Inverse folding.
């Protein structure tokens, strides 16, 4: 989930991205030099929070969960691997099976729902799936629905209503929502469906000597990484999906033990992730669902070299 930026990094994102926002204030949006478009919070929200992030996290030179800061030697032992087609695990990125209620919703109903929920799709609206209005329209397994009920959620938030069907069809997505808008579950639940689908399509897959997660979520700070991990934990538990949370500023022993369980879902800060990959504790060869949570904040904090 990402803020508006016009950096070279964004311009190199893969094409076929759908973007959506559910802000209370209509967002200003600008195209970046590719097919994808990103949307930001209202400029008032963004400028107000930007100063807080810089003051509270020390900007580029501070060490907040990302290991060795901006050392020029950081990650120097990483090697680009050239994959052969036969080496790659095959998977279907489209795990969305729309319900009859969602499929039969008219264009007028869809437009009215998006307008009332203040959802703006800046690019790709023509091919974007129709929004999900109720949880039972998402096609989630009972394990997920049971956890949602136990948490007291009654229906999807706007960013979930539109973001879930886009993410579950395997399309790239840049989505912006305010704090408390449900962004975390917006990417966590489609991720778990991706893991479950691959697990069912390849039930005989053997554990490799090196852990390699299907899902990788990057967060700028230890606190945010732990928050995402706590949100994902009850769903992972009900679905028997192993998870791990990797961050700096803490001993590695417990994190190594989590990796020994071959987690399919990993949340990490960029520095600690690079450190673990560099030392051979895991690899990312099987990672095919990647989330940059608060990517603008990572860039503001000087994480661009690690992200690249």
């Amino acid at each position: 989930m990402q803020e508006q930026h016009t950096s070279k990094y964004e311009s190199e994102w893969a094409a076929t991205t759908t973007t959506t926002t559910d802000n209370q204030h209509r967002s200003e949006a600008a195209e970046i030099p590719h097919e994808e478009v990103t949307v930001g919070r209202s400029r008032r929200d963004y400028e107000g929070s930007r100063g807080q992030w810089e003051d509270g996290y020390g900007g580029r030179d501070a060490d907040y969960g990302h290991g060795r800061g901006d050392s020029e030697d950081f990650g120097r032992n990483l090697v680009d691997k050239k994959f052969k087609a036969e080496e790659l695990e095959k998977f279907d990125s489209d795990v969305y099976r729309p319900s009859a209620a969602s499929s039969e919703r008219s264009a007028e109903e869809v437009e009215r729902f998006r307008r009332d929920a203040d959802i703006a799709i800046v690019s790709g609206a023509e091919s974007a799936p129709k929004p999900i209005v109720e949880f039972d329209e998402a096609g989630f397994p009972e394990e997920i629905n049971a956890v949602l009920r136990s948490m007291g959620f009654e229906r999807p938030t706007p960013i979930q209503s539109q973001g879930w069907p886009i993410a579950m069809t395997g399309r790239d997505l840049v989505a912006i929502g305010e704090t408390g808008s449900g962004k975390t579950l917006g990417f966590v639940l489609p991720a778990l469906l991706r893991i479950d689908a691959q697990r069912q399509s390849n039930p005989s897959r053997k554990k490799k000597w090196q852990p390699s997660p299907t899902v990788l979520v990057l967060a700028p700070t230890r606190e945010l990484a732990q928050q995402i991990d706590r949100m994902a934990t009850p769903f992972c538990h009900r679905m028997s999906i192993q998870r791990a949370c990797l961050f700096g500023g803490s001993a590695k022993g417990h994190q190594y033990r989590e990796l020994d369980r071959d987690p399919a879902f990993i949340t990490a800060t960029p520095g600690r992730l690079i450190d673990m990959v560099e030392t051979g504790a895991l690899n990312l060869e099987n990672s095919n669902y990647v989330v940059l949570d608060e990517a603008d904040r990572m860039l503001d904090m000087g994480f661009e070299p690690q992200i690249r």
Summary: The first strand starts at residue 17 and ends at 21. Residues 98 and 185 are 18 Å apart (CA to CA).
